[in-house]
């Protein structure tokens, strides 16, 4: 039922957009006192207020809004008012692995020959111009027509925003 | 830019006239001044040419402090910097990935104030979490940052931040200031060949990419990035999503040491985005999670 109502809300907005992005109950904390609304719109009815530091579960994201659940509230709050408690699964959390692969364990020097390295200031300074790589980069460039076709395929419509 | 060039040019011209012309009668001064102002209004670039050499140089120099370079100069500077960066970190050998990133980036760039630049986008082989922009339309994302992303709108947010730096000519302004401070403005003089001038301006190798812009430029780029993503039909909140993730990486983590050194902390960036966020919170857009090109582990 909830899902149906969200779908209707999506279409009611009269815009082509993908409905919510599931976030699967991540932890969050209110960065400041924030109103929780019934739907993800600034003029939607407020169902309550989160106090600074209130803990929430983040269930879903839609545009600039998170659907959250706190001990007493359930609704939508501006995502920029919430500090997410942890990185999402799938991203991050693999830095030990990176350290292992790059051979960067403790000493701070690159000892590995895997070719995957960090970029520190010293390495950047020593870099030599690579003309061949630039030509490869040129070959990957997309034309405006290709970009427009790609946008259409992805249901992206340009719009005026200041 | 025309206005700034015009202003800088006018300032330099008037300075020259003030130095050179006080002995002349007021009428001549006024005539000359009017003539120069008319010329500036018609065409700032052409106006420079009618003036004596020292004024031309002063005007060009004044314009450079505002980051004004000719399109050819900007392109040459960017290409040199990009080629140097690729010398430090090669492109990820995955043509599909590179083409995908170019399509997203080019679409975004078409919504910018500089749709006609020769835009290039690339993912480079580095475990560092970072992204870079060079003048003239060169944008790079590291493999380390790309791995953090989970949708096309998040990639769009990251690319749009770099596009914003290029559109606002942040690095050119930085270079122009450095040029002025370090070398007394002599770097682009006629004595040195063009490639030598460029090499001297951007410093050793890809050093340019480890220099910080001022914080204001970063906040400005974040805000413009959200606007660009919105214009392109994306969910404008892809960049804040990425920043929320990056905020969790410890500053002790080597993979973010350069990013955190050259940028304000993600928490501060998110705070500064609040106003733009409120302005755009009624704008929804595509997240395109399914189409997002995922890296092989």
General description of the model:
The complex is a heterodimer of chains A (162) and B (297). Mean pLDDT of chain A is 78; it is low at 11-18 and 90-115. With 162 residues, chain A is of the alpha+beta class. Chain A has helices spanning 2-12, 95-102, 121-126, 131-140, 144-153; strands spanning 21-30, 34-37, 46-50, 55-62, 65-69, 74-78, 82-84. Chain A is flat. Chain A contains 5 helices and 7 strands. Chain B starts with a helix and ends in a 17-residue tail after the last helix. Chain B has a 3-stranded mixed sheet with strand order 1-3-2. In chain B, helix 1 packs antiparallel against helix 2, helix 1 (2-20) packs across helix 4 and helix 6 packs across helix 8. The longest helix of chain B has 19 residues, at 2-20. By secondary structure, chain B is mainly alpha-helical. The chains are: A alpha+beta (162), B mainly alpha (297). Chains A and B meet through helix 2, helix 3, helix 4 and helix 5 of A and helix 5, helix 6, strand 1, helix 11 and helix 12 of B.
Features:
heterodimer; A: 162 residues; alpha+beta; SH3 type barrels; five-stranded antiparallel β-sheet; two-stranded antiparallel ribbon; 5 helices; flat; B: 297 residues; mainly alpha; three-stranded mixed β-sheet; 15 helices; 60% helix; globular
In brief, what are we looking at here?
With 162 residues, chain A is of the alpha+beta class.
Distinct helical segment count of chain B = 15
Question: Regions of chain A with pLDDT < 50 over 5+ consecutive residues?
Answer: 11-18, 90-115
* Overall pLDDT metric of chain A: 78
Strand content of chain B: under 5%
Q: Give helix % range of chain A.
A: 25-40%
Strand arrangement, largest sheet of chain A? 6-5-4-1-7
**What is the strand arrangement across the widest sheet of chain B?**
1-3-2
Report the major sheet of chain B.
3 strands, mixed
Largest sheet of chain A, described in full?
5 strands, antiparallel
Low-confidence stretches of chain B: 21-25
Secondary structure tally: strands of chain B? 3
- Tell the overall outline of chain B: globular
The gyration radius over C-alpha positions of chain B equals: 22 Å
Mean pLDDT of chain B: 84
- Level-1 CATH class name of the domain at 23-102 in chain A: Mainly Beta
Biggest interface, chains and residues, is: A-B, 73 and 88 residues
What fraction of the residues of chain A are assigned to beta strands by DSSP?
15-25%
Radius of gyration of chain A: 23 Å
Helix content of chain B: 55-70%
**Distance between the ends of chain B:** 45 Å
- Which secondary-structure class do the elements of chain A indicate? alpha+beta
